[in-house]
Amino acid sequence: MNRGRLSATLLALLCVSIVRADPNSAARVRTFASLPDWTGIWQSAAWPTDVSGRVPGGEEKLRSGLQLIRHPPYNAEWEANFQAGMQNTAALAARSATFKVCSRGFPAIMEAPWLFQIVVLPEETVLIFENQQVRHVYTDGRRHPPKKDLWPTRLGDSIGHWEGDTLIVDTIARTSEPIAPRAWLSVLSDGAHVTERLRMVNRNEIEDQLTIEDPVALAQPWRMALEFKRVAEMNRMYPFDCKENERNPVIDGKMTIATP
């Protein structure tokens, strides 16, 4: 570790200890003031919806912009399993025609259509999604829980630290569900490890450089860049429950649209 990084680490640890001792301390106020301002309402840039709530260009246009549905760089064993599953085209078509998702796991939540807000605090950064899911990234120096206290969850366990205006996030212990809707056969092992580098590119854009590492399933790290655009047309969040607003019942294996 070089001298500059060591000094920054010692300063961060000092600030953490002061913050824990006194949440209203001058040190906490200074730390808070040094953090970037990510207030506002954001949405994945992969979902440029029009007034109808649908992506102009339809499903084909949407798929061209989504990154988590792309082919994972599997090793030979996992690639063989993936290709075998792809042969069952009838099952895949049926699932794609009827799927309804009211929540998503990680990393799928980061490429979901839902609006979200970001709360940046010295102790943690919180991502609050309109579907009522909340992602916590702890930045107060705590580590991941020990193995005996760590179990998989849909959003995993996330800790992070700041490098200037960039938030470095380390996530483990996610459940082995499909990586994203529309990618039903893309799964990872329980040992998958995701690193993110989040930064504000300009006032209206946040970038997430996301890397997935999985020595069990992947032949190499899987890297992608997710983008989020500011939603300037709204000045507050309106939480919703898609189960209470169900207008797409599945009848005879087909999704339908019910009138209000």
Order of helices and strands: HHEHHHEEEEEEEEEE
Which CATH C-level class is it? Mainly Beta
Distance between the ends: 61 Å
Based on helices, strands and strand pairing, what is the structural class?
alpha+beta
For the record, the CATH architecture stands as: Beta Barrel
Low-confidence stretches: 6-11
Number of strands: 11
Report the mean per-residue pLDDT as an integer: 87
List key phrases describing it:
11 strands; alpha+beta; two-stranded antiparallel sheet; single chain; Lipocalin; about 25% strand; nine-stranded mixed sheet; about 260 residues; 5 helices; about 20% helix
Task: Give the gist of this structure.
The chain has 260 residues and is α+β, with helices and mostly antiparallel strands. It contains five helices and eleven strands.
Walk me through this protein's architecture.
This protein is α+β, with helices and mostly antiparallel strands. It has five helices and eleven strands. The chain has a nine-stranded mixed beta sheet, with no helix packed on it. β7 (193-202) and β8 form a beta hairpin. The chain is globular, with a radius of gyration of 20 Å.
